[in-house]
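dumping these here so i dont lose them again. two proteins, back to back, each one seq then structure tokens. dont judge the mess
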Amino acid sequence: MASTTKDFASLGVAPFLVRSLASMSIKAPTQVQSACIPPILQGRDCIGSAQTGSGKTIAFALPMLQQLSKDPYGIFGLVLTPTRELAFQIHEQFVALGSAINLKSCCIVGGLDQMKQAVELSSRPHIVVATPGRLCDLIRSSSHGSWNLSKVKFLVLDEADRMLNPGFAEELGFILGQLPSQRQTLLFTATITDAIMHLREKEPAPGKEKPFLHLTEAETTTPSQLEQQYIFISSQVRECYAYYLLHHLCELTGAEALVKRKAQPQVNNRRGQRGRKAESDAEDDDTPELPQTILFVSRCRTAAHLSLMLNELDIPNTPLHSHLSQRERLASLNDFRASRKPLLIATDVGSRGLDIPEVEVVINWDVPRDPADYVHRVGRTARAGKKGTSITFVTEGDVDLVSAVEERTGATMKELSLPEEDVLEHLNKVTTAKRFATMELHEEKFGEKQDIRKKKQRLLEGKSDDKTKMKKRKSLKSADKA
């Protein structure tokens, strides 16, 4: 049953937090907040599921800060997330909500100076928001007694479906071994998985209740105000359709365009040279008026290639993918949040948890193989009750994937038809830009460092396997002799 709670005070939230929420123009709790905040304040573990954009961060942050205010010490709470971008966002929300109690929060992620992060942890912040890999590295390398997690009161796994995947198992197991057994554990996700439900059904530790469970009432896991569309095309002309779509996005979706700005010269950071198209005269400017839009792709190379190609076509954008440095990733997000660039071209590092309410359109360059990834992608728009549109390019090999997505969401995508003749008018221009982008990637040796790192990792894993086999052989020989 939907909650009828109309204010945070009636949930038991302390006045100082109510005032912090009001300063952020947040006055009424969402369903997941109404359901989860009281049992967490009562000391219960919690598993919370709700649609993207429903305010899950506030649902766990408020009780943590309220309990911290009674007995402030560090390190009081640990929040683990699967992506760096989400970690920074959660950290920022804690800082904003905890300003009244002089909260000390730190963000521990890869890609930034490890020594500085070790110093931050040594100062014992109240809240640590981290990705598992970097936190494990810092725990293993920390000086004895400089800091530890032995007094953590709260552990939060945000995007818990991802955190409980096998890929995080080793790191998560190591971190859990550093935590006290007497703590509150909070899991929040937009996607309930078998692994999460298994935790719910486990016999609780002596003296503890089973975790409080809140499941979203909605039949679907996509926002109710989301208009879901698809364009069925040949994969050979997808770039051409994307170019036409971006130039007509406002009229096709009814979204509001950001203020049109003169295209800025695009600079290649490696070579310090301006793109050829950026040097054209102002009268040749073909910059479209765009709403705030995220274009999702599956691979880093695709994101980089599309970004260069669209720069060449005078469509302002900024990329977000794991081959960028952490500073470049943060700069891209800042440009997009501030509307300096209306189009973000992102891999799935940007699909989870990012809260940018102004996003009006999400475009899927491809249909995700995992329907849950589709849910997280399109959840970047139509947030907090606002309207939004998702448009997915569907090619000849994607029909089964679309069926899986529709079965998962319980919603049917509507076909969006574009005039083929008008689209293909730009074929030569788009093909030229595509060729230029390919040459740029080749000159930059895109992905070379990552490929070398992967080869080294495979080599190390192979040596480790060989050592294990040798030990087994020696053990068997010893057993035979015995």
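---- next one ----
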Amino acid sequence: MIDQLTVEAAVTDARLAAMEFDDAQAWLRARPTLTEPLAAEVWVADPTFSHVLLVRHRVRGWVPPGGKVEPGETPRVAAIRELAEEAGVAGELLPAPAAVAVRSFRSDWTPTLSLSYAAIVGRDEPLGGESEQPSKWVDLDETWESVFPEDRDRIRAYVRRLAAGNEVRAR
């Protein structure tokens, strides 16, 4: 069971998300309680909005840094932690969540709420993280292999939306 603080933070961020996929709002309304796992990830773009930061997951392929929200942790805090753990980057998240979606991360897991946050980080920022899951900058127009191929278009659309709005600055 997910604690109340985490549930409230997840529901609030789901409502504030710039983009919605998989009919996530209706899925969320249909559930009186959220069950684990709850997921959070970070869509990291460079200041020119031409590259995204991805991590090579051993099973899922190239994916944004992210993972499971731990007990007592909000999805936003989990996203920051996962970015540091998986890519070695201490990024500052943009105020509004990028997206909310519903997906299953493993065949033996039920579908879960997944919140995507965003950060703008310079490509000169040193990358680190987990040695068995290397991270790298990928050209936004490049095709990367992933078990979630729909993420390419979702991330591209969001980054291009940021670029068009020119409303954020690099840290």
